[in-house]
Design a protein that fits this description.
single chain, alpha/beta, Rossmann fold, three-stranded mixed beta sheet, 13 helices, 19 strands
Length: 515
């Protein structure tokens, strides 16, 4: 048991107003802190409030376009929370309120693409353990999503000039609030690292491409979040077509009426009209739009020169979207049966691809060749090399742990999050005797070292080199961690020569993965 205290915790005077948090087990915790406010589709403005704001409850999360359906809770346990458009808030975990402490600050941007999720959605997002272990200030951020954060109405009026990136503007506003206030919570405003997984990883890259975010963070961690064309097709369209279709469906003639229509009616109409436009490759929003504010995905263009000064860690997991259950016990199947299962996918190239796979992953089961990620790993390597070509420091990793579930499930999308947050104790499936504690220390330790110094090297891991334009050192996070160089380039070359390009949207639509 630890100490709880509320009454003697001091009131904090922030730029927005007075805050009252609480103390528990050697840590101060502040929840639901408002950092901005905005009208629908508008740009954020600094939040202001009167009196003392109670910061002991999580704030609203952004409304979703569709009802959440709990599933896969054993693999990725979730928390479901009240939704409201007034969702620009953040949470803070810190060991000290001493303004002279100058602890490194790490800021979490959640996953869910640009559509869904929240700062507390996954149980493993809790910042207590990481703050306690690393002597860092942990911050997690909520912001506008989907059509609230990413719908381009700019063709309909100057007041909507950046509505297509309102969610990103929220994130920049949160970083400005952190810069101006985090010293009150023991943090160093000049030593901020941003990190995120999946859509959160994409947001880290995006913030590197936004001039308004310059100087608000020093480094970034991108977890399973490099979006190549397997996730998004770039388009030069603006919001004219989708917004006109939305107005027609809702029976309104003035675009301003979209600001006041009930959100659920707005979302229902959008869900109906967006699908045929998206099928034709048109712009439908729900992702950032390239403009003078946001310079676009660097894989579809280039990095801003300022981005090369930001050290980054880039990681993926072995299986990413291989959520479908293994139908056989892969460790108790004959070689002939194994080969026939592989041959259904890789045809006449099976023997050659399997030989190359065994070189790349000598300690993995042959059937796991069916689950090798083709969505994130390749564009992550491309991004690292692009960053390195401009003089940037990039560190690659791959999380390859096998879990005691479904005959040895290989690492899936989100499975590395509990290890990075030092929260494996909160996710039952992570409990692997003799493995979990050591690997958690290695993964969280590398990130904490990176957040403090810009370099993940520490005594718990082998020497970890930066990526160069012609060399890809990858830290393999597994039962035994090791560095390997360009080890899977040939494997992907062979797989890509046999299989069509991977498209996540098509895989979900065809029910090739469980989601």
């Amino acid at each position: 048991m630890g100490t709880f205290d509320y009454d003697s915790v001091p009131v904090i005077k922030t730029t927005g107003g007075l805050l009252k948090g609480y103390f528990h087990r050697d840590e101060y915790i502040f929840k639901g802190v408002p950092y901005a406010t905005a009208k629908r589709f508008g740009q954020p403005e600094p939040a202001k409030w009167d009196g003392v704001k109670d910061a002991c409850s999580y704030g609203f999360v952004c409304p979703l376009r569709r009802q959440d359906v709990p599933n896969g809770e054993l693999l990725v346990p979730h928390r479901y929370w009240p939704q409201d458009e007034n969702c620009q808030n953040l949470n803070i975990w810190t060991k000290t309120l001493d303004e002279s402490a100058k602890q490194p600050v790490i800021v979490w941007f959640h996953g869910g693409g640009y559509e869904a999720g929240s700062s507390i959605e996954q149980v493993a997002y809790d910042g207590y353990n990481l703050a306690m272990r690393g002597d860092v200030v942990v911050v997690s951020v909520n912001h506008r999503l989907n059509i609230l954060g990413y719908l381009d109405l700019s063709p309909f009026g100057e007041e909507y000039a950046n509505s297509g990136n309102a969610g990103h503007a929220d994130m920049v506003a949160s970083l400005k609030w952190i810069h101006d206030n985090i010293s009150l919570f023991g943090g160093d405003p000049e030593n901020v690292t941003i990190f995120g997984q999946s859509g959160g990883g994409m947001k880290v890259i995006d913030l590197m491409q936004i001039p308004a975010a310059d100087g608000l963070f020093k480094r970034g961690l991108i977890m399973s979040g490099v979006a190549g064309d397997s996730l998004f097709n770039d388009t030069e369209d603006d919001g004219t077509r989708i917004v006109k279709a939305l107005m027609k469906e809702l029976g309104v003639t003035d675009v301003k009426e979209l600001e006041t229509i009930d959100y659920h009616d707005l979302a229902k109409a959008y869900n109906k009209v967006s699908e045929p436009i998206a099928a034709e490759g048109g712009y439908v929003g729900c992702k950032p739009i390239k403009n003078d504010y946001y310079y676009g995905n660097p894989l579809f263009g280039e990095f801003r020169k300022e981005a090369y000064d930001i050290p980054i860690m880039i990681g993926t997991v072995f299986g990413e979207f291989a959520f479908a259950p293994m139908l056989v016990d892969k460790h108790n199947i004959s070689k002939d049966e194994e080969f026939e299962m592989l041959k259904k996918v890789y045809k006449d190239a099976t023997a050659d691809i399997l030989k190359e796979y065994n070189k790349a992953y000598p300690n993995k089961c042959n059937l796991d060749l069916l689950n090798v990620d083709r969505c994130m790993r390749q564009p992550s390597k491309d991004l690292a090399k692009l960053h390195a070509a401009g003089g940037g420091k990039s560190y690659l990793y791959l999380f390859a742990l096998e879990f005691p579930y479904n005959f040895g499930k290989i690492a899936w999308h989100c499975s590395d999050i509990p290890f990075l947050f030092a929260n494996t104790d909160k996710v039952e499936v992570c409990d692997i005797d003799g493995v979990t504690e050591k690997l958690e220390n290695q993964i969280s330790g590398a990130f904490l070292t990176f957040a403090k110094t810009g370099d993940p090297n520490n005594d718990l891991l082998p020497k970890w080199e930066c990526v160069s334009p012609d060399k890809e050192p990858t830290m393999i996070y597994d039962r035994e961690c090791e560095i390997r160089y360009n080890y899977d380039d040939k494997l992907y070359e062979m797989i890509d020569s046999v299989l069509p390009p991977f498209r996540l949207h098509d895989a979900i639509k065809n029910d090739d993965i469980q989601h």
